[in-house]
């Protein structure tokens, strides 16, 4: 859209651009923000705001960077509401239900899959998510993984090849053959549509040797590494991610001291870590499991991101505000830490510096809250506080 747009009368502007006494969230009071060509062009005190072609009046409310959901599984068919109900009645979560979704996904048409991604993408956007990562992983054949990623790429730049989600039933007694297929023809078909490669490294899914082999194959063709690690129990997934220079290790629910030390050892000059711990509290909520200990990671200097893990089995939420509220209530994060993790933290988990921050040159992705402060996202759980969303500078 042409022309400049001024977001004016901002009571609290979360920039995530520290300095000037605004704390880690880089908070500015009584601020304004100018958008040109889809980018932030200027940030400053409202009284110095430049003229613009159009104006959005924030009416004294809080304005934040749009949420960056760095972990979502949106390409699937069917739902698993009955499995959820059974789990709430006492059955444990094992990850085995993934195969139910695989069957439904293979049977669906391209248009059915595309309609589901479109619906969930729109649902997330209404709740303030302006960037979303989308994984494959419910196809698990060469053709079905490639089409999942082709459809995902219609909706996001951050697509992730997760052919190693589970070993599909037809390979149950020969997992080595499946790993060979993932590294061979499946990767070749998927890579043109993928930015990242991911593996579910967990008991019952892929062991550390298989996970290492698959991730190394992805790296060799230029994909960045992410790992589903240490969700259901302790294991080597987090340390494997660190070993391979992963952008993010995701879940991190069951961590040893060695895991935390390994993550902390990836520290960078800016005070964060190059491998981010992405926490997915929607999964613990929906599987009635103990939450990860965010405080322990933060106190060790590990960069933490929050994401939804949106998927039909273990976390069917697209709501970043819900994850923020859970992180504060259940994971001992402060509201400021949780908001940072859901915006700048997600951007770091995707190795991007153009999102999750509101400074000149960044993408004009932002939300106007129906509240005077970012604190309300955790303070008022379950309340629709996203009043307006700008995506690439365009009001949605
Ligand atoms: Zn996941």
UniProtKB/TrEMBL annotation:
Cofactor(s), by name: Zn(2+); Fe(3+)
E.C. number: 3.5.2.7
Pathway entry: Amino-acid degradation; L-histidine degradation into L-glutamate; N-formimidoyl-L-glutamate from L-histidine: step 3/3
Binding site residues for Fe(3+): 71, 73, 228, 309
Annotated residues for binding of Zn(2+): 71, 73, 228, 309
Domain of life: Bacteria
Broad enzyme group: hydrolase
Residue intervals of the Amidohydrolase-related domain: 249-371
Residues involved in 4-imidazolone-5-propanoate binding: 80, 138, 165, 231, 314
Localization per record: Cytoplasm
Cofactor note: Binds 1 zinc or iron ion per subunit.
Gene Ontology cellular component list: cytoplasm
Family membership noted in the UniProt record: Belongs to the metallo-dependent hydrolases superfamily. HutI family.
Protein name: Imidazolonepropionase
